[in-house]
């Protein structure tokens, strides 16, 4: 149905989840569309100060795009910004968090998607709360986004009990390879995994299912605990995608933990 070769042009509403300069003047965008598709598109001349597509080619920007197709390539022929999420750029914590989650979303290819709007809505809600987020909340926002991304991919980790024996425990090891919490009895020797207290595992489960718009009104754990949770979830998705999220180190580095 979505064979680009059959299209000459189309209008899409999309968030830019990756934007890189190509040559001197062009940008190559990865667009997450409101119908769930992911489209790579060239925005010609978008680097230029006078380009009418300059703002819409920026990372995190939500716009209406008119795309035209030449062979397999999509080109931005015109665009109109709907929401720039400009509040994110005013703060290094927000900016770094948004870069991190956008990079995670950009690991997805169209083939991974189910062509529904779940991820698009999740990213839109996340960017909206990030516009006003403070230093204390951005780690938990990132953790929640990543858990929900895992859920969308159908790889939600287990947090309720040991993935191996099914027993509950006062504390667990979090194993990316095993897909969640492993109790101390079942944990393989020499396993170098983070330890999660039972209540921390429960908190992760809560984040997985909460409406992300409610995150600003939650209570947050200590910063060091939030950072540990972020490391668990980041490692989990890196293992799945076989890709390192290059924005992670900078993001977590902001917290001096
Ligand atoms: Zn066990």
What do we call the CATH homologous superfamily of the largest domain? Answer: Recombination protein O, C-terminal domain
- N-to-C terminal Cα separation, in Å? 49 Å
Helix share of residues?
A: 25-40%
- Secondary structure class reads alpha+beta
The helix/strand series, from N terminus to C terminus, equals EEEEEHHHEEEHHH
Instruction: Please give the radius of gyration in angstroms.
Output: 20 Å
Summarize the biggest pleated sheet.
5 strands, mixed, barrel
Shape: elongated
Q: Return the domain count.
A: 2
Q: Quaternary state, please?
A: single chain
Work out the helix count: 6
Mean pLDDT, to the nearest integer, reads: 92
Description of the molecule:
The protein is built from 6 helices and 8 strands. It has 257 residues and is α+β, with helices and mostly antiparallel strands. The protein has 2 domains: 81 residues, Beta Barrel (OB fold (Dihydrolipoamide Acetyltransferase, E2P)); 163 residues, de novo design (two linked rop proteins), CATH 1.20.1440.120. The strands form 2 sheets. Strands 1-2-3-5-4 form a 5-stranded mixed barrel. α3 packs parallel to α5. The longest helix has 19 residues. It is elongated and about 60 Å long. It starts with 8 loop residues before the first strand and ends with a helix. The mean pLDDT is 92. It binds zinc ion (ZN). Zinc ion binds next to loops.
